[in-house]
C-alpha cells in the first residue's frame, strides 16, 4: 500500500502545530531507533510527554484517528503514540524497515501500517522526500502540508537528506483489525464504492443496505480483533 490522504489538517491547524512545535524540547532521534535504523537515523524528535507536548499529541491524534479515509484504508484497531520529527540541512533517515512492534507495556503496538503527516510547506525545504519501496515499485512523496502518506511498515523506506530549510512531520503506526493487506484493499474499494453511491442514489435506495451488509459481513470474517 502507498496512499496519499489529503487535508488531514487544514492551514490554520498547520500554523497552530508549527507554533507549538517551536516551544517543545527536541532530542536526538537515535534515542528511539534500534538495530540498523539507529545507524541511518539523523534527525530530531520532540518530547510529546510534557504538558505542551501532550496537548499537541492529543490534538494531532484526534485529527488523525477521526479521518474517514484513513479509517477506511487502514481498518485500525490500535494506534501507536505519535512522534514529531524535525529534519534540517544535512539530516536524513536512511533506508530501513520499521520494527514489528513499537512501544512497551500497554503502549506496545504491532506495526502493520506506518504513516507520515507532513507539516511543512514543500516549497520551504529542499530534499526530504519520503521514498517507499513497495511491491508496485518505488514511490516518492513530498506532498502539501496537512497531507498524510500511509504505507506498509514492512516496506523499505527512507527520508532523503534535507539540503535547505526544515522538514517537520508527524509519524506513527497502526495495528489493523484486518491484517491481510488484500482484504484491507478490498474493504477500501468497497468503502469508496459506498461513498460514490451516496452521491448518486437516494438514501432510502436498497443498494445502500445491501452494500452495508456485504461490508459488515466481510469485516466480521476478516477482523482479527
From TrEMBL:
<dbReference type="GO" id="GO:0006974">
    <property type="term" value="P:DNA damage response"/>
</dbReference>
<dbReference type="GO" id="GO:0031418">
    <property type="term" value="F:L-ascorbic acid binding"/>
</dbReference>
<feature type="domain" description="Fe2OG dioxygenase">
    <location>
        <begin position="78"/>
        <end position="176"/>
    </location>
</feature>
<keyword id="KW-0479">Metal-binding</keyword>
<dbReference type="InterPro" id="IPR005123">
    <property type="entry name" value="Oxoglu/Fe-dep_dioxygenase_dom"/>
</dbReference>
<protein>
    <recommendedName>
        <fullName>Fe2OG dioxygenase domain-containing protein</fullName>
    </recommendedName>
</protein>
<feature type="binding site">
    <location>
        <position position="96"/>
    </location>
    <ligand>
        <name>Fe cation</name>
    </ligand>
</feature>
<keyword id="KW-0847">Vitamin C</keyword>
<dbReference type="InterPro" id="IPR023550">
    <property type="entry name" value="PKHD_hydroxylase"/>
</dbReference>
<dbReference type="GO" id="GO:0016706">
    <property type="term" value="F:2-oxoglutarate-dependent dioxygenase activity"/>
</dbReference>
<keyword id="KW-0223">Dioxygenase</keyword>
<dbReference type="Pfam" id="PF13640">
    <property type="entry name" value="2OG-FeII_Oxy_3"/>
</dbReference>
<feature type="binding site">
    <location>
        <position position="167"/>
    </location>
    <ligand>
        <name>2-oxoglutarate</name>
    </ligand>
</feature>
<dbReference type="GO" id="GO:0006879">
    <property type="term" value="P:intracellular iron ion homeostasis"/>
</dbReference>
<feature type="binding site">
    <location>
        <position position="98"/>
    </location>
    <ligand>
        <name>Fe cation</name>
    </ligand>
</feature>
<dbReference type="GO" id="GO:0005506">
    <property type="term" value="F:iron ion binding"/>
</dbReference>
<keyword id="KW-0560">Oxidoreductase</keyword>
<dbReference type="InterPro" id="IPR044862">
    <property type="entry name" value="Pro_4_hyd_alph_FE2OG_OXY"/>
</dbReference>
<feature type="binding site">
    <location>
        <position position="157"/>
    </location>
    <ligand>
        <name>Fe cation</name>
    </ligand>
</feature>
<keyword id="KW-0408">Iron</keyword>
<dbReference type="InterPro" id="IPR006620">
    <property type="entry name" value="Pro_4_hyd_alph"/>
</dbReference>
Amino acid at each position: 500500500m502507498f496512499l496519499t490522504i489529503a487535508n488531514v489538517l487544514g492551514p490554520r491547524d498547520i500554523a497552530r502545530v508549527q507554533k507549538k512545535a517551536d516551544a517543545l524540547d527536541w532530542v536526538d532521534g537515535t534515542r528511539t531507533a534500534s538495530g540498523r535504523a539507529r545507524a541511518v537515523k539523523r534527525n530530531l524528535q520532540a518530547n510529546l510527554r510534557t504538558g505542551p507536548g501532550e496537548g499537541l499529541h492529543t490534538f494531532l491524534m484526534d485529527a488523525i484517528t477521526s479521518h474517514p479515509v484513513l479509517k477506511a484504508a487502514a481498518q485500525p484497531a490500535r494506534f501507536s503514540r505519535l512522534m514529531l520529527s524535525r529534519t534540517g540541512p544535512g539530516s536524513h533517515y536512511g533506508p530501513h524497515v520499521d520494527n514489528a512492534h513499537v512501544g512497551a507495556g500497554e503502549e506496545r503496538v504491532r506495526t502493520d501500517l506506518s504513516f507520515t503527516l507532513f507539516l511543512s510547506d514543500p516549497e520551504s525545504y529542499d530534499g526530504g522526500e519520503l521514498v517507499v519501496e513497495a511491491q508496485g515499485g518505488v514511490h516518492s512523496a513530498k506532498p502539501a502540508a496537512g497531507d498524510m502518506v500511509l504505507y506498509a511498515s514492512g516496506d523499505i523506506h527512507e527520508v532523503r537528506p534535507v539540503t535547505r530549510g526544515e522538514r517537520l512531520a508527524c509519524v506513527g503506526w497502526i495495528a489493523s483489525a484486518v491484517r491481510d493487506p488484500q482484504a484491507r484493499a478490498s474493504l477500501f474499494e468497497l468503502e469508496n464504492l459506498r461513498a460514490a453511491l451516496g452521491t448518486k442514489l437516494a438514501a432510502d435506495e436498497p443498494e445502500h443496505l445491501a452494500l452495508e451488509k456485504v461490508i459488515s459481513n466481510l469485516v466480521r470474517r476478516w477482523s482479527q480483533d
